[in-house]
Amino acid sequence: MLEGKSAIDGFSVVSAGGASLKSGRLVKVAKLLRSAKTLWRRGCSGGFSPRKSDLNFAPSAGPAFDSVLAKIKREAMRRKVWFRLSKVERALVDLTLKCVKQPRSPRLIDVLASIIVKVKAFLAGQLQWLMGQVGKPLAMKLSKIAESWGNKEARKWAEDVSFIRFLTVMDKTFQSLAWRH
Q1: Where are the domains of the chain?
Q2: Strand ranges, E, within the chain
Q3: pTM, to two decimals
């Protein structure tokens, strides 16, 4: 073994990104190397790395790619909100995708629904979330006040997305968040 580096048969093995491969992946890499199913290339640092196409570390019994849960997970990972979920929530979704074709347990369905709602809220973005938390209540309050003064068209204000967005952006909560970034 080389000092401080992962090695197979005396060669240091690095990923395509340049990081040393972990020991769990080394087993698969060693099998690929010995079975001559992969091509290796020597990097500029002297280490060998396998082709990316040969390193498919996904489990063989993967998720059904057309399921709603799999689509939500892919979108969350693509938009980098997947890791905002707790480790337990991520594990629950992963295990459900691997082991359950159609969830039937009411408890599992409720928990998955709450996770999906949380992911959808993360995907919606901060402005959409603030519109629901700040702008919508303000629009409802202002429309009720205007209705009490006799404005019959004011009832539509509470559902007008443009008005809700305007109230959200003009609110001091949004202003304080905007100045932080």
Answers
A1: 7-54, 68-122, 126-180
A2: 7-8, 11-12, 40-42, 48-50
A3: 0.45
